[in-house]
């Protein structure tokens, strides 16, 4: 998995992004919140991640087991970001490099596999606050196109697809066998990231980093 040191000379910028996002989330929720880059996982974290999966995804086929999570986090340039609220992990996001020539979503080179927030903290604006920092970190890793999928059979999935399209994601074919979700991609360039920053609050520090 990716550690802060993987970012090399950009490490300090990455840590600044995580600290700033944590402070914004703390102000939003009124309780100490940390948005962290995890460089290793233990059994307790994996068990909590699986618990949140089971809580959120009522369709059994959508739930990642602990072994599924371990497999995903062993992929090339796997990135795991955890959301800890009041001392308890309440959400996480992970992604990894897409396989060259056979990406999960056509045209992408980095796949954002899962972004999950527990039911206790859903619909509080957390997702929109995290979207730009996550895309920025993928950009800092040197990837050019982020891809993701979202389910189209339920209202939540359709709402998420609409949100991503507002950020600039466009529809793209899904190559993974058995995945019936909507594929979406976004080109990661300074102009694209600046345009997203203009849509979201408290992003001046990221715009300054792009201009640096």
Based on secondary structure, the structural category is alpha+beta
Residue fraction in strands: 15-25%
Number of strands: 7
Low-confidence region ranges = none
Mean pLDDT: 87
How large, in whole angstroms, is the Cα Rg? 16 Å
Which strand order do you get reading across the main beta sheet? 1-2-3-4-5-7-6
Helicity range? 40-55%
The topology string of helices and strands comes to HEHHEEEHEHEEHH
> Which outline best applies?
globular
Alpha-carbon distance between the two ends: 27 Å
Number of helices: 7
User: Biggest sheet, open or closed, and with what strands and sense?
Assistant: 7 strands, mixed
Report a brief summary of the structure.
It contains seven helices and seven strands. The protein has helices at 11-29, 43-56, 66-73, 126-140, 155-167, 190-199, 204-211; strands spanning 33-38, 79-85, 88-97, 110-117, 145-150, 170-172, 182-187. Strands 1-2-3-4-5-7-6 form a seven-stranded mixed beta sheet, sandwiched between helices.
């Amino acid at each position: 998995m990716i550690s802060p040191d993987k970012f090399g000379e950009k490490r300090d910028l990455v840590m600044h992004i995580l600290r700033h996002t944590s402070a914004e989330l703390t102000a939003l929720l009124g309780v100490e919140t940390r948005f962290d880059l995890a460089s290793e996982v233990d059994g307790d974290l994996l068990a909590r991640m699986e618990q949140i999966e089971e809580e959120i995804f009522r369709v059994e086929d959508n739930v990642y087991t602990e072994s599924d999570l371990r497999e995903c986090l062993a992929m090339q340039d796997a990135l795991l970001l955890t959301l800890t609220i009041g001392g308890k992990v309440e959400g996480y996001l992970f992604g990894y490099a897409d396989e060259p020539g056979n990406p999960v979503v056509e045209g992408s080179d980095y796949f954002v596999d899962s972004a999950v927030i527990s039911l206790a903290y859903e619909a509080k604006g957390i997702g929109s606050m995290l979207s730009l920092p996550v895309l920025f970190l993928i950009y800092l890793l040197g990837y050019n196109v982020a891809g993701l999928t979202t389910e189209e059979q339920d209202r939540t999935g359709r709402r998420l697809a609409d949100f991503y399209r507002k950020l600039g994601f466009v529809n793209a074919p899904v190559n993974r066998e058995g995945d019936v979700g909507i594929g979406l991609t976004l080109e990661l360039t300074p102009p694209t990231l600046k345009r997203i920053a203009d849509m979201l609050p408290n992003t001046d520090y990221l715009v300054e980093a792009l201009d640096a």
